[in-house]
Amino acid sequence: MNTETHAPALEFWFEFGSNYSYLSVMRIEAAAARQGVRVLWKPFLLGPIFRALGMDNSPFVLQKEKGAYMWQDMVRECRKYGLPWQRPSVFPRLGVLPLRVALAGEGEPWVGAFCQAVMQLNFVHDQDINSEAALAPLLEGLGLPAAEILAAAGSDAVKARLRAHTDEARARGVFGAPTFFMGEEMFWGNDRLDDALAFAAPTRP
Amino acid sequence: MNTETHAPALEFWFEFGSNYSYLSVMRIEAAAARQGVRVLWKPFLLGPIFRALGMDNSPFVLQKEKGAYMWQDMVRECRKYGLPWQRPSVFPRLGVLPLRVALAGEGEPWVGAFCQAVMQLNFVHDQDINSEAALAPLLEGLGLPAAEILAAAGSDAVKARLRAHTDEARARGVFGAPTFFMGEEMFWGNDRLDDALAFAAPTRP
């Protein structure tokens, strides 16, 4: 496993409300490790992106046909990747608080495990993810100081960083999640995760 | 190669103006033959589908960011599949006449080769595909009676069949191309071609 800081780094832009982000959050750490690529976790808010594109909700809500298809596709995709799945009763779930927690933990080794736990809460256990009551047990389950991390997540600095991430995503042409960047090369969708990692991977002998 | 009529059949709904349909048109016959699956070519018009969904053009034209990404993605996808590629100077190109030709040849062994030739005209040679002058040489190149086939393509019966195909696509929840059906199971996008074929394939010992 080659994850030292000089390894090439793939930016992973994701949202906790996004079902296709769920697939990538669950897959990316193992897949990246196999390729010798580091993951830079880039939480951002999809809502402002969609609004800037003229949509007041997820395209899966606004376009009935596309939404109906997506739920069928998710069942098959989860089966393909061996991931548990339950269609959430609320979609898309608000996830601004866990996005801030992920930002508060930027660069920490627990970020991936935390993001996986949040995604499972949403897409496996069909539970609210946007409260301290929901997130504290996840952090504690990872052996982390929940109160301290949640306080950091609520700071003005972290709130501003999440807004800045979202503005950066918009400026770089992101229109959905997950989105991957290696330098200026952009890859959209869980379907492109393997291609993005292959692009980012160091040349092998 | 198992393509006798009792082999399982995958419906392949496609449009000549659709760039992701280009990838599937070029790939599907060889991939289906490897899986022992027949291909049912289902030409339809995307324009009326998009209009029914409230869009007066391709989403790649209406959504600037998504369009910019798609052109970047196509370069990489064609490289991945070993397909030639030139970004068309007109997009999306009208392709109602070649769709009618493909319908006029329904069930004929030349349909796949004809569709590949039309797609190459659009996405490799950047040429008009919607005139008899453009299509006659393609048909002749396949050793076919061009005048006779073009006359059949212009018949009221074929025109009505193309409208009926488009209505059927809409009724079955199609919102883009390519789309694959095995029975009621729907797969959207060239990214799902392999999954659709695996789903359609007969169980192997």
UniProtKB/TrEMBL annotation, chains A, B:
GO terms for biological process: glutathione metabolic process; naphthalene catabolic process. GO terms for molecular function: 2-hydroxychromene-2-carboxylate isomerase activity; glutathione peroxidase activity; glutathione transferase activity. Keywords: Isomerase. The active site is at residue 18. It is an enzyme of class 5 (isomerase). SUPFAM superfamilies: Thioredoxin-like (SSF52833). The keyword Isomerase applies. InterPro entries: DSBA-like_thioredoxin_dom, GST_Kappa/NadH, HCCAis_GSTk, NahD-like, Thioredoxin-like_sf. It catalyses: 2-hydroxychromene-2-carboxylate = (3E)-4-(2-hydroxyphenyl)-2-oxobut-3-enoate. Its EC number is 5.99.1.4. Residues 10-195 form the DSBA-like thioredoxin domain. PANTHER family: GLUTATHIONE S-TRANSFERASE KAPPA, GLUTATHIONE S-TRANSFERASE KAPPA 1. Belongs to the GST superfamily. NadH family. This is 2-hydroxychromene-2-carboxylate isomerase. It comes from Zoogloea dura. The lineage of its organism: Bacteria, Pseudomonadati, Pseudomonadota, Betaproteobacteria, Rhodocyclales.
